[in-house]
Design a protein that fits this description.
alpha+beta, Aminopeptidase
């Protein structure tokens, strides 16, 4: 059984690790879902080390998942308002670890952190054609609440489902 651990990102080296993981994961997973040009655009705009550092400075929580001490995935989420909605910005796992429960473990960690902040719900966007991710989020208690088509610049669009899950506080 592999050993899983989750650590908050706190150093420039860890930001670089997130960027490297994102490139590997996106280039393996997204061809056929979105174009190579859109993959390159989204990696450049959302995963530059400077952008990730700015997200941290803006209050986004960024965590690395390690499997047997090797970086295997990451999450980014925000929502520190008691009773408010938390947003899951990113949750990605190397393809070699799909189907082992590691993604669900990372998602559970995010949910637990949001519960500690007394957030009432967790919301995310997922590409409508990312069927594997949609199924995984449904298995973890998320429901589709909206369909969105959003211009993200440079002639690219996000064609997403908005999914949400009510978070029950374990103390209640």
């Amino acid at each position: 059984m592999p050993t899983l651990s989750i650590e908050p990102v706190s150093s420039p080296a860890q930001l670089q690790t997130v960027q490297t993981l994102a490139q590997e994961i996106w280039l393996a997973h997204y061809p056929g879902i979105i174009t190579h040009a859109q993959i390159r655009y989204m990696l450049a705009s959302g995963y530059a080390v400077e952008r990730l550092a700015a997200d941290l400075n803006a209050g986004v929580h960024l965590d690395l998942l390690y499997i047997d001490a090797a970086p295997a995935g990451f999450s980014a989420y925000a929502g520190d308002q008691p009773g408010g909605e938390a947003d899951l910005h990113k949750l990605y796992l190397l393809p070699a670890f799909h189907g082992l429960g590691a993604g669900s473990t990372l998602l559970q960690h995010v949910e637990d952190q949001c519960r500690l902040q007394q957030c009432a719900s967790l919301t995310l966007n997922v590409n409508k054609h990312n069927h594997r991710a949609v199924r995984a989020y449904r298995r973890n208690g998320f429901s589709i609440i909206q369909s969105v088509y959003k211009d993200i610049g440079a002639g690219f669009y996000m064609d997403d489902f908005v999914m949400t899950k009510l978070l029950r506080n374990n103390a209640s």
